[in-house]
């Protein structure tokens, strides 16, 4: 005996089985300004690593006959008063400006993080009067350093140590320590008193395990953002101190040194100061844009 299905049932049964389509979650594309900033930073990295690949001539070679030549196919950014190719000097100068700024930022990050972490942990892991004394001592030391503007403090340090490549890196690095120390201290203070940290300790986790698994990852979230922005600020500080004669000395093609050498000829050779200034300004803007974008990404991930 056979049964005949209704026409509507036959039509439904004839349809193909539904398929589950999984749509891949696309990551949002970075804004155009972030792409431009990243491209500029990539150029800086390449100039630091292989400046000879981009330079068109010897950055130290003088040619008085070609003094103050405007931009041309032979000299893309023109020449300075000694006939040196400005583009080549900018390419080789990136190694000084960027590396000094990176070294100064690294010093600030390392020392500031250690001091801030020690101050923040003193109240949680070191109980009693000893912990309070340690926290107050470190905090007061930061207050003394913060009493001076960062650039003035860097100038004072260079005045005692003398001008030079590494001296200026140390000076700028010391001036940036309070910023990282205060932020890390505040974050550590909050994290160590969070409920999940207390629960981890109750369940038998050692202090080192709690510090490694819970405190450090959450207390240092703001450090990469600050470091990215601070690299550009440090490059600006390096150029400013070099402009005042407190950094690398001529004939080193540091960007601030190039600005100082161009200030007497700007009326007749605008290009001598314009292009080094563009690279200084571009570095500050690029690292700031990258840092702000990292902040937005981290805030969205933690939301």
Description:
The protein has 303 residues and is mainly alpha-helical. The protein has a domain at 91-302: MetI-like fold (Orthogonal Bundle), CATH 1.10.3720.10. The chain contains 13 helices and no strands. It has helices spanning 7-14, 32-49, 51-54, 86-125, 129-146, 150-161, 165-175, 177-192, 195-202, 207-219, 223-243, 255-262, 271-302. Helix 4 runs parallel beside helix 8, helix 4 (86-125) packs across helix 11 and helix 8 (177-192) crosses helix 10. The longest helix has 40 residues, at 86-125. Residues 19-24 have low confidence and may be disordered. One of its GO terms (cellular component) is plasma membrane. Belongs to the binding-protein-dependent transport system permease family. It comes from Microbacterium rhizomatis. This is ABC transporter permease. It is a multi-pass membrane protein.
